[in-house]
Design a protein that fits this description.
Oligoribo/pAp-PDE_c-di-AMP_PDE; DHH_sf; binds manganese (II) ion; DHHA1_dom; 2 domains; six-stranded mixed sheet; Diaminopimelate Epimerase, Chain A, domain 1; six-stranded parallel sheet; 333 residues; nucleic acid binding
């Protein structure tokens, strides 16, 4: 048995109150892996207290989502173990205003390529799988063997998490094991994937105004495109502020790389919680640009063709200069 697997079990056994957290702005895999983890832990250890806290609900219906504790501020008081899913470091899960003790033992269950400095009292489980959901499933499958059984709810979570993060098995993070795990889950309950993919790709009509604003900023340089909205515009325009996140996700996933001649690029959104922080998301078509190295140099991380960074800059102009300089450097390299 792998050493970190045994450590995982030890950490769980020694704890009484477990807090599950996932990355900020959680996606489907973040929610599915967290909910799956919570459900399995409660089945295996009914006497332990297991709480999953987040600042927002999933945008579509997921089994067990009613048990998510929605909070304004994340707090770790009273817990003796923190488990992070779909994130490699606590800093990706909390904001400055949150109250989470870094000294509490931590288990990190992740699948991203970016690795953080290892801290004391921390167990890392990351075998670079397709999704955090697949990693949670494999961990329990191997550690608990026949004690661990899927039911309808957990099978649904496994399928949704994998389908969301692999883009319905299109991305090359999909491995034979991903298909095996999916097959295990599908033999318990057959979820309607077409319906799920459709619901998962909906966006609110309120995002339209923000989409227009973003498109006004579109710049294309050779095979790269980028878009942004400025913090000043966001502060003065409530409609833009409310739609910015959805617009950013829509344009990032379904517009940026789909312009003829464009293969990669980035999109910027101001972080409204801190006055000088910005989210920058990079995306590339397979085989074109390694955007992870660019994000890493800016202090972020992710996958080769999908990466991101939360970055500080005084103005949108200063931020763009910083990003474009690093891009230029990597293009020459
Ligand atoms: Mn993920």
């Amino acid at each position: 048995m792998k050493k970190n697997y045994n450590q995982f079990k030890e950490f769980i056994k020694q704890s009484k109150k477990i807090l599950i957290l996932t990355h900020k702005g959680p996606d489907v895999d973040a929610f599915c892996s967290s909910l799956l983890l919570k459900q399995i832990l409660l089945e295996l250890y009914p006497k332990k207290k297991v709480v999953f806290r987040a600042k927002q609900n999933p945008s579509l219906k997921l089994p067990g989502m009613k048990e998510i504790e929605i909070v304004k501020e994340l707090k770790s008081e009273g817990f003796d173990l923190i488990i992070l899913t779909d994130a490699g470091d606590l800093s990706l899960c909390i904001e400055d205003t949150d109250n989470v003790e870094d000294s509490i033992p931590q288990i990190i269950i992740d699948h991203h390529d970016t690795f953080f400095e290892k801290k004391k009292n921390t167990v890392l489980v990351n075998e670079n799988m397709s999704s955090a959901t697949e990693q949670v499933y494999m961990l329990f499958r191997i550690l608990y063997k026949n004690e661990f059984k899927l039911n309808e709810d957990s099978s649904t979570l496994v399928q949704y998490g994998i389908v969301a993060d692999t883009g319905r098995f299109l991305y090359d993070i999909t491995t034979p094991n991903t298909h095996r795990v999916f097959a295990d889950a599908k033999s318990i309950v057959d979820v309607d994937l077409e319906d799920f993919a459709y619901r998962n790709s909906k966006f609110p009509r309120e995002a339209t105004h923000a989409i227009i604003k973003y498109l006004e900023s579109l710049k294309i340089e050779k095979d790269m495109a980028y878009m942004f909205v400025d913090r000043k515009d966001l502060e003065e325009d409530l409609e833009l502020k409310q739609g910015a996140s959805e617009a950013q996700a829509f344009l990032r996933d379904r517009y940026l790389r789909f312009i003829q001649g464009v293969h990669w690029g980035f999109i910027i959104k101001p972080d409204m919680n801190t006055k000088d922080s910005w989210f920058v998301s990079f995306r590339s078509t397979k085989g074109y640009q390694d955007v992870r190295v660019i994000a890493e140099e800016l202090g972020g991380g992710g996958h080769t063709y999908a990466s991101g960074v939360l970055i500080k800059a005084d103005s949108i102009e200063a931020l763009l200069t910083k990003i474009l300089n690093i891009i230029e450097k990597h293009l020459k390299a």
